[in-house]
Specification:
Number of helices of chain A: 12
Low-confidence stretches of chain A: none
Keywords (chain B): Cell membrane, Membrane, Transmembrane, Transmembrane helix, Transport
Oligomer: heterodimer
Distance between the termini of chain A: 37 Å
Shape of chain B: globular
Largest sheet of chain B: none
Main location (chain B): membrane
Low-confidence stretches of chain B: none
Mean pLDDT of chain B: 90
Family (chain B): Belongs to the binding-protein-dependent transport system permease family. CysTW subfamily.
Subcellular location (chain B): Cell membrane
Largest sheet of chain A: none
Mean pLDDT of chain A: 89
Helix content of chain B: over 70%
InterPro entries (chain B): MetI-like, MetI-like_sf
Helix content of chain A: over 70%
Order of helices and strands of chain B: HHHHHHHHHHHHHH
Shape of chain A: globular
Strand content of chain A: under 5%
């Protein structure tokens, strides 16, 4: 009985974990392999090997390039705006356990579970009532909502690890609040802020539900463009674009892991 | 000290004002517009809600969306929990690899990962090529645009959001409790159900809330893997708002989607709180 108990438990843990890891990695690996196809269509396994689709992507795909630059610009501005506001808010909420501070924290985290599609439609209505048009500015506003919760979460986690005695010592020794923040607090929470900013940037870069309502014809966004290509043309250039995104994401993740021990931040 | 405190609170003001203007005001507006009887906004009534709940086709779209959310949540729990258990008892290198295998997909664009499923499940895709090659089928099987394929693809998209909170919750459990259970003669399954699972409940509940909310509004995966034959709330809402220009109806659909997410997330959290109380009382 004990042996059956142990073996059945081990089998489930190891077996299902293996399946989960295959499912987690399969789509990314398959897209990466498919992007090097020598053929004209998306078959798997691919026919032959070539870089033709990467060449097509880089030389004959101006509209994808424009959408890529728009996505980068919006994500960068949203990450900057969201980080400034969220770090300030995290400072205000740290070490408070009152009902009001908990409610405020929950409200700030709401965009993570609210269907952002509903939010996108609401923002579009707000813009039209204000007599404005969807533009780069409205996109940045919408995407800032995507970034803020991530930065708030990681910054709050870093602040909760911070020994308050350090700040008290700095203040006792005559440092003003701003000086103490800059020289004591900021260096200690910088990794947390950076991790939140990174994941917020990626979430904004990936966002469709807000962009769908707030992007106009002049500000095409990369996920929308790729979605369109995959749905209507099933063009292999989409695989090449995906291959590049996977490579860049992988490299960024490694850099962030080095700089901020990103995986540890995310676990907490 | 007093002035320092009040200054402290003001630091939350920019984000709070931003949320009031661009999160809560739009949602309020959505609710207001959903009560308009026509796109001319002349009279207000529950007409738009009657259009959804009074029509079998509309009710079906809502029910299908909620079903996809529930099934995806169930599949991700079954896949993520064992992975989290493996992470808990592995050495530092394996732990790191598991975390990277979870984080890389999480950070990779949803469009890209969904595209991967299109390539895997297509008529000339990985699975069909393998089945044909092995002689198990004579012509390609329809995998793409089926209900089950959509659940699998969504489970992959949402898996990291389930695995991370469970891993976090398991790491907080005092290992001596598990040892004590084993020393007292409890078998592995019993220790798991009586000690590990109840103590990891907060992480599990957090993961379920994120995955349910994420999978019912995953418009890209729903349209690319689900295809045109299946219609779910997000694309329905988008069509009504942008293509049909019927804002009041689209607003009602958005409010209904929002309400169901809040209800499900709310009941999950209430369940977790009552379990916590019950544990402390017992």
């Amino acid at each position: 009985m004990t042996a059956v108990d142990r073996w059945s438990f081990e089998l489930v843990v190891v077996g299902v974990s293996a399946l989960a890891l295959v499912i987690l990695t399969a789509p990314t690996v398959v897209v990466l392999i498919a992007s090097f196809t020598g053929g004209q269509s998306l078959r798997f396994p691919p026919q032959g090997f070539s870089l033709q689709w990467y060449d097509a992507l880089l030389t004959r795909s101006q509209e994808i390039g424009v959408a890529f630059r728009n996505s980068i610009a919006v994500a960068a501005m949203a990450a900057a705006a969201g980080t400034m506001m969220a770090v300030a808010a995290a400072m205000a909420l740290s070490r408070r356990t009152t009902r009001a501070s908990r409610a405020l924290d929950a409200a700030f985290m709401a965009p993570l579970t609210l269907p952002t599609l509903a939010l996108g439609l609401g923002l579009l209505m707000l813009i039209s009532i204000a007599g404005a048009e969807p533009s780069l500015v409205t996109l940045v506003v919408g995407h800032t909502i995507i970034v803020a919760p991530y930065v708030l979460r990681t910054t709050s986690a870093s602040l909760s690890q911070l020994d308050p005695a350090l700040v008290d010592s700095a203040r006792t020794l005559g440092a003003g609040p701003a000086y103490a923040f800059r020289t004591v607090v900021l260096p200690l929470i910088a990794a947390g802020i950076a991790a939140g900013m990174f994941i917020g940037f990626m979430a904004s870069f990936d966002n469709v539900s807000i962009s769908l309502f707030l992007a106009d014809a002049g500000t095409d966004m990369l996920p929308l463009r790729l979605w369109n290509i995959i749905e209507n043309l099933l063009d292999v250039r989409a695989a090449a674009a995906s291959g590049l995104l996977i490579a860049v994401t992988g490299v960024l993740l490694m850099v962030m892991e080095r700089l901020t021990r990103f995986s540890r931040q995310m676990r907490n | 000290m007093r002035t320092a405190r009040s200054l402290d609170w003001q630091l939350a003001a920019p984000l709070a004002l931003f949320y009031v203007a661009f999160v809560f005001a739009p949602i309020g507006l959505l609710v207001a517009v959903s009560f308009a009887e026509s796109p001319e906004f002349d009279t207000f009534s529950l007409h738009q809600y009657a259009r959804v709940f009074g029509d079998a086709y509309q009710r079906g779209i809502l029910a299908d969306t909620l079903q996809i959310g529930a099934q995806t949540t169930a599949v991700t729990v079954l896949l993520a929990y064992p992975l989290a258990l493996l992470h808990l008892r592995s050495g530092p290198t394996v732990r790191r690899l598991i975390l990277l295998a979870i984080l890389l997909p999480l950070l990779t664009s949803t469009v890209v990962r969904t595209f991967g499923w299109v390539v895997i499940l297509g008529r000339q895709g990985l699975i069909n090529t393998a089945l044909l090659g092995a002689g198990l089928v004579e012509k390609p099987v329809q995998l793409l645009y089926t209900h089950n394929a959509l659940v699998v693809a969504l489970a992959q998209i949402e898996l990291p959001l389930m695995a991370l909170p469970i891993i976090n919750a398991l790491a907080r459990i005092d290992p001596t409790l598990i040892d004590a259970s084993a020393t007292l003669g409890a078998r592995r399954w019993r220790t798991f159900f009586k000690v590990v699972l109840p103590l990891s409940l907060p992480g599990l509940i957090a993961g379920m809330a994120l995955v349910f909310a994420g999978s019912i509004s995953a418009i890209i995966t729903q349209t690319l893997v689900g295809g045109g034959r299946m219609l779910f709330m997000p694309y329905h809402l988008y069509q009504q708002a942008i293509l049909a220009n019927d804002w009041p109806f689209a607003a009602a659909l958005a409010v209904i989607l929002l309400a169901f997410v809040l209800m499900v997330v709310g009941s999950l959290l209430a369940f977790e709180r009552s379990m916590a109380r019950w544990r402390h009382a017992g």
